[in-house]
């Protein structure tokens, strides 16, 4: 029962931290990007996905070890996984600017 309670608390903690992290970073990125490109509503989706990927790396490599839930299966992401997720997150965050510069997707 204690394991269940600690895992529920950890999930609540993770979601709250993720909401704050994604909200702050998306706002900062939006302010920067809207100075460079005409902003469209769909671009928030790209920022959200990129920031969630960045948060996943942060959580798996740092934050999971300071929470309430303890398990023998807790381990950091491999270097390759970290690199791939950070690269994908960066591409998603840069996607609005890349789309305007190179016109990848005609509808965006």
Task: Summarize the structure in short.
This protein is an all-alpha fold.
Structure description:
This protein has helices at residues 2-36, 43-61, 79-102. It is mainly α. The longest helix is centred in the first third of the chain and has 35 residues, at 2-36.
Runs with pLDDT <50, length 5+?
none
User: What is the H/E order?
Assistant: HHH
Shape: elongated
Find the structural class using helix and strand composition. Answer: mainly alpha
Strand content of the residues, in percent? under 5%
The averaged pLDDT comes out at: 88
Secondary structure elements and pairings:
Blueprint: H1 2-36, H2 43-61, H3 79-102
Summary tags:
mainly alpha, 3 helices, elongated
């Amino acid at each position: 029962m204690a394991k269940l309670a600690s895992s529920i608390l950890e999930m609540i903690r993770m979601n709250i931290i993720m909401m704050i992290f994604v909200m702050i970073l998306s706002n900062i990125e939006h302010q920067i990007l809207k100075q460079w490109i005409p902003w469209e509503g769909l671009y928030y989706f790209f920022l959200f996905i990129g920031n969630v990927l960045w948060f996943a790396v942060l959580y798996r490599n740092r934050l999971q070890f300071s929470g309430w839930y303890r398990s023998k299966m807790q381990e950091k992401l491999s270097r390759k996984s970290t690199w791939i997720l950070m690269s994908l997150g960066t591409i998603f965050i840069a996607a609005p600017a890349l789309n305007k510069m190179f016109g990848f997707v005609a509808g965006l």
